[in-house]
Amino acid sequence: MARYFGRRLIQLIPILFGVSVVTFLLVRLIPGDPAISMLGSRATPALIARIHRQFGLNLPIWQQYLHYMDGVFHANFGISIFYEQSVWPLVVSRIPLTLELLVYSAVIALAIAVPLASIAAARRGGAVDHGIRLSATTALGVPSFWLGILLILLLGVRVRIFPVGGAGTGVADRLYSLTLPALTAGLAITPILLRTLRSSLIEVLRADFVSTARAVGLPRRTVFRSYILRNSILPCLTVLNVNIGWLIGTVIVVEDVFGLPGLGSLLVSSISTRDYSIIQLATLFFAFFVIAANLGMDLLYGVVDPRISLARKAA
Amino acid sequence: MIQSQQGRYRRSAVVLASLAVAALVAACSSGGSSGSSNAASAAGTPVHGGTLVFARHADIFSFDPYNTQDDESIFTEMQIYDRLVALSPDGKSVVPELATSWSVAPNGLTADFHLRPGVKFSDGTPLTVNDVVFSLKRAINQQGSWGFLFSPVKGVTALNSSTVQLQMSTPFAPLLAALSTFAASIYSESNFKKWGSQEGNHPLGTGPFALQNWSPGNSVTLVRNKYYWQKGKPYLNKVEFTNVSNDNSRVLDLESGSAEVIDNVPPNQVAAIKSHGDQIESVLGSAVGWVTLNEHVPPLNEANVRLALAYAMDRATVAKTVYFGLASPAKSVIPSGTFYYNGNTDPITFNLAKAKALLAKSTVPHGFTLNVMIASGDTASLDQTEIWAADLAKIGIKLNVTSLEQTTAQQRYNTAQYSAWVSEWTNDTPDPDEMMGAGLVYLPQDALHTYFNDPQIAGLVTKARQQLKAGARADLYTQIQQLYNLQGPYVYTVDIPRLYSATPSVHGFTPNSQGDYELQNVWIGK
């Protein structure tokens, strides 16, 4: 187990290195000069040159990359052109909120998908099943930025249950403030989870061991919980795992709609301003989240399904 | 604060869907005329206390005027720092602030400012002449982003403990206007030095409010400066600027009571907000929408062609339909709140017959295809261009519109890889010299990348800059405005408003023409 974990951690290094190279080149290859973005109509050649010199943007790209990597090995991820501050604290301070939102969204998505999928599977082919499946398909087509606004309008303005923006302070307030954003992001992946879970539930329902369990007279509830759901949740987790990248993308949009000061909104604004150092570090963190989530999910498989032995897989 | 449909990065510009409207209101300040529906609310007896939550479309970046690039930082600095002089409430002149009086030498090469006695910083330490000299020396540094506003100013010295002298290489008429901007903010020298490279996060000024906390990306909290020199002010205990980049979310913040004031109100929501009972503050006069034309691209090198394009621009319709009547047709290439603005110099009307006649005199009498560049998401520019295109089609000119991401478009404009660019100009100072010095003079930026090159106009701009007599200066600017209208270097469209909204309980919120919120006058009633 520890060996497996260690191996996965070592695999992280080349992946993050690759992401850093790609991001570094991409941000410099897209047109648009940060100095011009910053100076606007004041962008005289002299001022542009001063900013280029100040941030080393006048050097050839390979030299810029060497400087960047040199900094990274000294735990210096560069200076933000706009904030004129070290990017590390700027970026790191945004992470907790984004992580909380991600986890909260995933929990909400599962909390909606699992019961609905169970009902749909149990009443397979009936009106309720069709209704749930139709809603899921419809929900799949609803863009998050629109849904977010709709939820704010409904639950923040008309019926004032939730705050319409801001991240809140303190645990309870934070949880309360993030409910609408998490619901918005969660609903974006709920349909996918729901459909996967429903079909795997139906498959398991037909399995011999379920018939056996029923035949020996186990209570319905026990059969469902211990035999059916437990066997069906695995594909659902796989789907969630595969879609974690997409959930992160959704969270970025949701942060903007709800005005949340997370990593996503920082990334979006930094792309517009071409604040290279922030984009690079924020992207690295997002890549790290995806990898870490996949690793976490692998560990979770072991808990849900003891047949999967990570230690053996690693060997 | 400079132009903004172009520059707001940072800003909103920035952001996704909000860009559209942001671009529109993005600009900077306003001036003089203001369609305020809350003029009456300044009446009544001010109440002390309370927190004002002000939801803005973008976060700030710095508190150091030397490095500041974006409007939100600028407007926040206006609350924390004072300057030697301030813009008058009507936006038409400059009035005392930290200086109680000043005198300019007859040859125009020195200006002496007498400091207000007894002023203290928000930590209680007294303001000294050394703080003023230190701050202004940084302001005039030509290496700084804003040094150009003070380019003829060569030195700042203390004559005695209460008098500061500025030395100029040539007479410099825009001096007072430049000193009223955020770029000439006065701050504490010892505090600045104490924080070293972190000074941008630890401002100490004599303004009505002091920084309590900045949580980047989230909010800026200011508290009342209890040492503020204007007795009884400010009224508010606290101001909290929250960062809400999404336009719709900001409006909903106002309607749900989460915010008392919002900025960058989407024009299409103004009517609904008014019907909801909230106030709309529309500040006109600091930004003008325009199309810049690259004269290196034929046939834009011909004045007849440029003027034909201008005569085909239906400014009244743009103001009415694109800006929901909140903008007014532009009458000059400088925003209407600029000093020496003269709206009577504009002979250009919407007249397709005239446009056709002008085109007939050019090398392309039957028309041509014009490539037009717009920042993507900038719906106001797009709508405006569609109106223009429909009219131009009638005289044989076809518009080929390309939408590019904001910073990419800006880059192409700056490197002159464009034919026509729909954007706007926003003043940073109320003096016309900034726009004219950049936009009508060939150097240093090829007349804002239009390659407009008219030695007579350039000579007049320089002359006006050095003319210290207001009357003679006004005559020169009127002459300049008349002259460029014969050549059409820019197709100007409308005076673009800055739109704010406030709940009915907010009193005295009337931003001035430089975009200063003037929160020292604001109070919250019932």
Polypeptide structure, described:
Chain A has a domain at 95-261: Orthogonal Bundle (MetI-like fold), CATH 1.10.3720.10. Chain A contains 15 helices and no strands. Chain A has helices spanning 2-29, 34-39, 45-54, 61-73, 87-92, 95-122, 127-140, 144-158, 171-205, 208-215, 220-242, 244-257, 263-273, 276-304, 310-314. In chain A, helix 9 (171-205) runs antiparallel to helix 12. Chain B is of the alpha+beta class and 526 residues long. Chain B has two domains: 31-207 and 503-524, Alpha-Beta Complex (Dipeptide-binding Protein, domain 1); 285-496, Dipeptide-binding Protein, domain 3 (Roll), CATH 3.10.105.10. Chain B has helices at residues 4-7, 18-25, 71-80, 129-140, 175-179, 189-195, 247-256, 270-275, 303-311, 315-322, 352-360, 379-393, 406-414, 433-439, 446-449, 455-466, 470-484; strands spanning 30-34, 51-56, 85-87, 94-96, 99-104, 110-115, 153-160, 163-168, 209-215, 219-224, 238-243, 261-262, 279-285, 287-293, 328-329, 369-375, 398-404, 420-426, 490-495, 498-502, 506-507, 523-524. In chain B, helix 9 runs antiparallel to helix 11 and helix 16 (455-466) runs antiparallel to helix 17. Chain B is globular. Chain B starts with a helix and ends with a strand. The relative contact order of chain B is 0.19. Mean pLDDT of chain B is 87; it is low at 1-42.
Number of strands of chain A: 0
Tell me the fraction of residues in β-strands of chain B, as a range. Answer: 15-25%
Estimate the global geometry of chain A from the Cα principal axes. elongated
What is the name of the CATH architecture of the largest domain in chain B?
Roll
What structural class do you assign from the helix and strand content of chain B?
A: alpha+beta
CATH superfamily of one domain in chain A: MetI-like
Q: Which spans of chain B of ≥5 residues are poorly predicted at pLDDT below 50?
A: 1-42
**Most strands sheet of chain A:** none
Q: Give the overall shape of chain B, derived from the CA principal axes.
A: globular
